[in-house]
Automatic annotation (TrEMBL), chains A, B:
Domain Glycosyl hydrolase family: 295-759
GO MF: carbohydrate binding; hydrolase activity, acting on glycosyl bonds; peptide-N4-(N-acetyl-beta-glucosaminyl)asparagine amidase activity
InterPro entries: 6-hairpin_glycosidase_sf, GH-type_carb-bd, GH92_a_mannosidase_put, GH92_N, Glyco_hydro_92, PNGase
Cofactors that this protein relies on: Ca(2+)
Identification of the protein by name: GH92 family glycosyl hydrolase
Swiss-Prot/TrEMBL GO biological process terms: carbohydrate metabolic process; glycoprotein catabolic process
Organism lineage string: Bacteria, Pseudomonadati, Bacteroidota, Flavobacteriia, Flavobacteriales
Subunit structure: Monomer.
Species this protein is from: Abyssalbus ytuae
Catalytic class of the enzyme: hydrolase
Keyword tags: Calcium, Glycosidase, Hydrolase, Signal
The enzyme's E.C. designation: 3.2.1.-
All copies of domain Glycosyl hydrolase family 92 N-terminal, residue ranges: 29-288
Length: 768, 768
């Protein structure tokens, strides 16, 4: 048998499988362009699952601040890309997924031909810089692959990536002198002084190493790189820098051209090539949190060849492996696109943060080695504790315990002795409130997904919850609430601390630590201390124990809340809905109250200055585009009107998640919005992570098969499913009717079948 | 037997030994205040032999540049201290010894009482800042120990140090609220943007860690520290910073007080204590080139206790061990002070640059581990190749081979493939000219002091000597000289390259590599290409082969030389004096020419704008205060008038090296000036390192006993020695008369006795 023929035959077979066996190729349903317009804050570029490298086009470089004042326009550019833009400045290697604040955009690479430019130019005059016009007609985004034609240079740019290496293939449709620009000043949420230092060595005519050190959202961030070219460059050089350049003693060396050791605050480099028509230049750029040596090792281990298509294929296979953990049948093709794109977005972060040898930069800025776990970073915990980490306990149990190990190491390295709040790249950025690492850890402990020292974990949670100088926590411990005249957003803080305390108590209970359980159960009741019986809302209290006088329960500003008004935030007692409902007047009154939330009108003025809340994400006064209310539709389950949850949820799934760049109604927030979609599409949701139970809703899929790590399979089936049959007539688990609107984690993890019988009419007595 | 009594008895015995057995306690002759005034650029503080920490008072903080323009006054502050000053700003942990350009001054610590100041204040108004007045009457400096009374606060400040740890003892004569200031902005040769980043963690109430990253003479320098207090502080905080401070999301944290994680461009911290009268606070501050973890380990290993006096004693014992390698008898007490102070200065650098575990930061900014050698940094090679490293081949053979190993690692890490030129703290600062690492390595090879891979070493030398983009080297290789219209100071460069090439050739010869020997011997003749027969001087040549027209052989500026005029530099052919003398008209004419050098008048205008040359260092037109002519007096040995060298040398020893702060006639240049003193006092000098031979001069000692590492002893004895008997009547080596004015390295290293018979009258026929 001829070997070449065999290879050819296998190749065709394989291709056929990819082309025709669609259900085994969910990558085809992923559309990375979803959520790349307006406020989705998603990037369309190439990345591997949970990859360190997110190689993606940036369409502009709006400064974070001008003359020391915050520039509101920057918010649009959290992911570096805005779909409405008409030019691309280049392809940088690190991006957050869907966040509402930003950083990164490290190592911007741009191929050009003709006249050399070392500044990006402007959108209105692209010819003044290295940027290029592009058209969405010539732009293709897949999981792990991105392609665009750079019109100004007639270059086809293609990107793919492994975990730690971004790979570029630039095909030049015109022969000419070509330049590869490497801009170390460019970045996301940049400002004049953001770059602290940049350092580059041209090791030889195909290899460049260096690092970029910034002072941004991460206060002290360092990312190293090793960059390899498929073709030797004939010249290289750097733009003249204003400051921070050592010019050699007596100015003896011209460092601007072919001098292989460069440093300064804002290095911008070029590499020159003679290029024939249709020739291509490939680039591999590896990142490392440790050193250029680490980056070089990552590069050599992960892509020891120059076969771009092979890398693309392997990364897409990796995506298929992740995405096929759930097989679905849907009513519409677009639902499948939304579902797998949500899965894709849910698996973009937290991101791997260590070299192939396990070394990483710790919070103390020292180098540590991850022993027996993968170290992750970029924990957007105020968002992701809600549904993303619970989803990981089902679909990514090993990664989730590794993420927890990463958090525990963070706590050990923290000079505060605290678990992460919002941490990235060896820094705590302190974004948002609460100490929701506790929720993530407790949820895993309660659900028996543990591969870490649980006693240490409990200790870390308790220590975190007792740092008295943290964000009103001292007063919270003393008074049972955060006084608004001590620390702003005091009600939000009180409510979230109370929930986190409950989560700690649940972990303690599971681990048999009764004293911690008791202590934290007591703390978990603190939500009661900010409830104002008179108005029926949660309301900021002052040090002296009285409620703050001025109070507008619709306003999101200055009312004691953060990124939400009292209408939404007053419902934040996920761990004790029954008590909350009693406190708020009982089931009936509460059900009507929820109805009002979804139907009342919320004038623009109440949120127009809030970055994270936009009209697109709102139904009535219910804000889905931001997190605090994500559990709210499911609260109907604790009234006698569970059916009301069902149409609300189906409505949210339909209205707030659509295909196309503008499909998302708010920041995806590192997968939290997507995790909500996945859970809700399947028919259940973790209202209170740390509880064994999920609240049942109304599934949107026709059928879903969840393949669990333990080999079990959990199937969700629907009968009589349609876009109008949004109500649940009955539910059966393994053939037995479910009489309460909840399902336990064990039921899922043990495998089995959940059947929803759907109807166009509510079954008001289903769970009563 | 009572143990306490035993201890007491031993203590008295030991003290007695220290007090009375003076010859075994050379530390007593060391005066670290010598050379601390004017241009000596020496620091008076505490350090261990070749220590990483130089803990020393800084008397002012003159900026290197103001509004981007060089500030000439900064030159005075190369060592941070100027004897004429009346205030001390604090005690910083890193200092260069005697250099003519500077950097460092890291981690300035200052104790104060009363009102808190976080700026140093000014010399004219010390009360406006944390600095204090002091008096030399209350200042004591010893090898490894420094003490001063800070008058403004009535604090007795004492300093000592191990290799990597500085120890402070502050005794408060008044009880009050005390502050310890830690100023990370302060530094030597500072300028507005020098600090790139500073980072501090308050680990607990007695331990602080962090780092300072600067862009100065070392372009990308990072020094880490761990600082431990003997008494817990009750509060701490930082000065408000203009820029580069992350203020926490929503400005929630007040980072200026008791917030244990600080970063920014210019951290200035304070630590508060309640202090009783006569109470003291001790501080240990360890440095590391690697990490705070490394610094902490250094601290724990080197000083695991709080016994200040024990540290002082151990460090002074270490100094005694180093200094007692030569025992001397002198004509005057002051000669002994000068001699041992010169020994002390010769053993201050290069400095150890690695953690106790052998790890250090390499030139590529990655962390390396020194395997089987001690890694050193701060190679002021243009100075130290001349006499200091040759001295090390006699007195510090192991350290010298480790220094060479450090250079070879540097070469491997260098993206240029070059050995160090002037390197410090993982950076090449490119200061001065030539590639004198080659001289250092060749000298060790020729003298059989090798503990490194000699083939690799030869390869590294050859590679270094062929980097065509380095400082006119390409043209030098092509044309046989550096053209002045290509690269300034072209004659100096040509001459020094030629010498270094000869050194490489000597190493190749010794190693049996004939082709390298031939190639570099040929290059070593290039000095001939810049000799102008018409004027009889070395003179700058242009690309077109003609001499540059305008030419003033007395001027040090714009004449093709650097830090020397043609009169001095034209004598720089140390490797071929015979040929040079022939070229310059023969022995007789040359002898007269040298006479003129020592007697002619050099008007101020010719050097008054040259930092490294001052009136104090000049005899006639001979410049001893700077290096290029250090071998010149010995050139008489190649004429028939060797006796003329003898009185010149004794005269230089007498005039240019005196006790007291103003005792030195120029920068000590990391021990080169001192090494000249030591060699010349002993009666011989290495005119051309790389040669087996030393030129004989006129010893100033009465007797010297050199204790060699191999156990041999080499004794220099004089007969009829006096301050006027400066001429040598005859010399005997092991009883045999010496008939040429040279002695070989082997003669020394094999041990033996060299006897000089001194006279008030020259013996003109001694070597003829």
């Amino acid at each position: 048998m001829n070997l070449n023929k065999t290879f050819c035959f296998l190749f065709i077979l394989n291709t056929a499988r990819v082309l025709f066996a669609q259900d085994e190729n969910p990558v085809e349903y992923v559309d990375p362009l979803i959520g790349t317009a307006k406020m989705g804050h998603l990037y369309p570029g190439a990345t591997a699952p949970f990859g360190s490298v997110q190689l993606s086009p940036d369409t502009d470089t709006i400064p974070y601040a001008v003359n020391g004042r915050y520039n509101r326009d920057v918010y649009k550019y959290c992911a570096g890309y805005q779909y409405e833009d008409e030019t691309i400045t280049g392809f940088s290697h690190t991006h957050f997924s869907g966040t509402g604040h930003s950083d990164l955009g490290d190592f911007l690479v741009m191929p050009t031909i003709g006249e050399l430019h070392l500044n990006p130019g402007t959108e209105t005059n692209p010819d003044s810089g290295y940027r290029s016009r592009f058209s969405h007609d010539e732009e293709y985004a897949e999981a792990g692959y991105y392609k665009v034609k750079l019109k100004d240079y007639e270059i086809d740019a293609e990107l793919t990536a492994t975990t730690r290496v971004g790979m570029h293939r630039y095909t030049f449709n015109k022969g000419n002198e070509a330049h590869i620009i490497l801009d170390l000043q460019a970045g996301i949420y940049n400002y004049e002084e953001k770059n602290v230092w940049t350092f580059v060595r041209v090791e030889n005519d195909t290899l460049v190493t260096g690092y970029r050190q910034t002072n941004g959202w991460a206060r002290t961030k360092k990312v190293y790189f090793a960059m390899s070219f498929s073709k030797p460059f004939k010249n290289f050089g750097q733009a003249k820098q204003k400051t921070g350049v050592y010019r050699g003693f007596w100015g003896r060396f011209d460092q601007t051209k072919n001098f292989p050791e460069m440093a300064g605050k804002n290095l911008k480099l070029y590499f020159d090539f003679d290029i024939q028509e249709q020739e291509n230049i490939k680039i591999k750029l590896a990142v490392s949190p440790v050193s250029t040596e680490g980056a070089l090792k990552n590069l050599q281990v992960e892509i020891p060849h120059w076969d771009f298509d092979k890398v693309k294929k392997q990364t897409q296979q990796a995506w298929n492996a992740e995405l096929s953990k759930i097989e679905i049948e849907t009513l519409k093709h677009s639902d499948k696109v939304n579902f797998y794109t949500a899965m894709y977005h849910a698996f973009l972060g937290p991101t791997v943060y260590m070299d192939v040898d396990g070394r990483y930069r710790g919070l103390d800025q020292n180098i540590h080695k991850a022993e027996n776990f993968i170290n992750y970073t970029s924990f957007s915990l105020w968002d992701t504790y809600r549904a993303l980490h619970p989803l990981f306990n089902i679909l990514q149990p090993d990664r989730n315990t590794d993420m927890i190990s990463s958090m525990l190491e963070h706590q050990k390295q923290s000079v505060h002795g605290m678990l992460p709040i919002w941490s990235h790249y060896a820094n705590e950025n302190w974004c948002m409130i609460g100490y929701h690492s506790a929720s993530v850890i407790a949820d895993a402990i309660v659900k028996d997904n543990v591969n870490f020292d649980t006693d240490e974990a409990l200790k870390a949670m308790v220590e975190t919850a007792k740092v008295s100088y943290f964000d009103g926590l001292g007063e919270y411990m003393e008074k049972g609430y955060v006084p608004e005249d001590v620390s702003g957003a005091s009600v939000s803080k009180t409510l979230e601390y109370a929930y986190d305390d409950w989560a700690i108590a649940q972990a303690a209970k599971k681990l048999g630590n009764n004293s911690v359980y008791k202590e934290f159960m007591e703390r978990s009741g603190n939500y009661k201390n900010v409830f104002d019986k008179k108005t029926g809302f949660m309301r900021p209290k002052l040090k002296n124990g009285s409620f703050k006088k001025e109070f507008d329960e619709l306003d999101t500003h200055g009312q004691g809340f953060i990124e939400g008004n009292s209408w939404n935030y007053s419902l934040y007692v996920p761990h004790a809905p029954e008590e909350m409902i009693k406190m708020m007047g009982g089931k009936k009154q509460f059900s009507t109250h929820l109805d009002s939330l979804f139907t009342m009108n919320l004038p623009d003025k109440y949120f127009e200055n809030t970055e994270d809340i936009s009209r697109e994400g709102i139904i009535g006064n219910y804000v889905h585009g931001n997190e605090p209310s994500h559990h709210v539709p499911y609260l109907y389950n604790w009234t006698d009107d569970a059916y009301k949850a069902q149409d609300k949820i189906r409505n949210i799934l339909k209205l707030k998640y659509q295909t196309g760049p503008e499909g998302l109604s708010g920041n995806d927030d590192f997968g939290q919005m997507s995790a909500w979609y996945i859970f809700s599409s399947l028919g259940f949701y973790p209202v209170a992570p740390g509880s064994e139970n999920y609240a049942l809703g109304s599934p949107a899929v026709k059928k879903a098969t969840v393949k669990l790590k333990n080999g079990n399979v959990f199937t969700i089936e629907t009968k009589n499913q349609s876009s109008t049959n949004v109500y649940v007539k009955k539910v059966e688990l393994n053939g037995e009717p479910i009489t309460q609107p909840f399902i336990s984690h064990k039921s899922i993890i043990n495998g089995g079948k959940l059947v929803f019988y759907m109807s166009g009419k509510p079954n008001k007595n289903l769970y009563n």
